[in-house]
Amino acid sequence: MAGDHLVVVTRTALLGFMLAAASVASLATALMFGSLPIGFTAVLDSIVFPAPGIIHDVIWNLRAPRAFAAFACGGLLALAGALLQVLLRNALADPYVLGVSSGASLGALLALSLGAGAAAMNLSAFGGAVAALVVVFGLTYRSGDWNVYRLLLTGVVLSAGLSALISLTLVLAPDAQVKGMLFWLMGDLSQTTSALPAWLILGALAALGVAASFQLDLLALGDLKARSLGVAVGPLQLGVFAAAAVATVTAVVLGGAIGFIGLMAPHAIRLAGATSHRILLPLSALLGGTVLTLADTAARTAWAPQQLPVGIFTALLGVPAMLLLLSRQR
Fold it and tell me: Which of 130, 289, 293, 303 could form a disulfide with 75 if both were Cys (CB 3.0 to 4.6 A apart)?
């Protein structure tokens, strides 16, 4: 018994070390590759001995802000996916099941169709996401009654209605704005300026999730069993909903509607052997951040100087990895 426990601990520690190393490597790759390739030595010199010049400007004014934004965005999506999967007890739950992505997309597209700038577009996307959350929460939580099945169904129905409005907006939008709209719908980190707020939110939510990991483990067993073991299920569900909503809204406003990360990352960590939320949540955030950073690097490098939507590459990187993990499971 003690030997089995030691094997699990060793495997988890090894997985954490590998993901931490992959995270650093993904950020280094993002700084090195682009329309102007920069060697690892030059990147290291710019970090240790920063000096004015074109390499310094490319790294710190262009690539570093976008790389850190991509990592924070991916981490937030993975964290939101892990939280929603335990809240809804549904393996297919992802950050966009609440209708947040559709609400934010509709708000952003309406702003783009009117020729608004990046700040106005982000504000409109934030307003659309919050409006979608208010509708879902208002229809789900009534008179102290919390029903996760009603939450799931409400989110799916609302997403369908908002998707129809998004299609209508694309049809009626001026031709000059359609390409920018499609980029936003498939994920776009090119307008990122500062990722510090997203990093602060990611750190705070991850810490809160780890602190409540034991209660989340019990909640995953079912409401009745969690209550019988002393868990205040209602407040915990509300807290998980709020945390997932904040993470999703922040990620969507930061990088647009980037799919697959929130669904793939938590499952990949579970398939690798980490099931406790104390381990699952931080490792999911590391994996999500790593995958999105690499995907964004590929999106701006593969067809340079033209940039491609990052959502294409999240699927191209994530689908083979998930299929490989699934094929190794009995």
Answer: 289
284-286-288-293 Cα dihedral, nearest 10 degrees: 180
- The pLDDT of 47-58, averaged and rounded, is 83
Peptide bond into 305 cis (omega under 30): yes
Integer Cα distance of 197 and 212 in angstroms: 23
- Is the separation of the CB atoms in 241 and 151 below 8 Å? yes
Q: What Cα–Cα distance (Å) separates residue 236 from each residue in 14, 89, 206, 312?
A: 31, 14, 15, 35
- Exposure of 268 by Cβ count < 10 A (0-12 exposed, 13-18 middle, 19+ buried)? buried
Tally of CA atoms within 13 A in the half-sphere of 329 that contains its CB: 13
Q: What is the mean pLDDT of residues 56-63?
A: 88
CATH 3.40.50.12780 applies to domain 2-327: no
Give the residue among 89, 121, 81 at the shortest CA–CA distance from 259: 81
DSSP 8-state assignment for residue 257: S
Decide if 105 contacts 126 (C-beta within 8 A): no
pTM of the model as a whole: 0.90
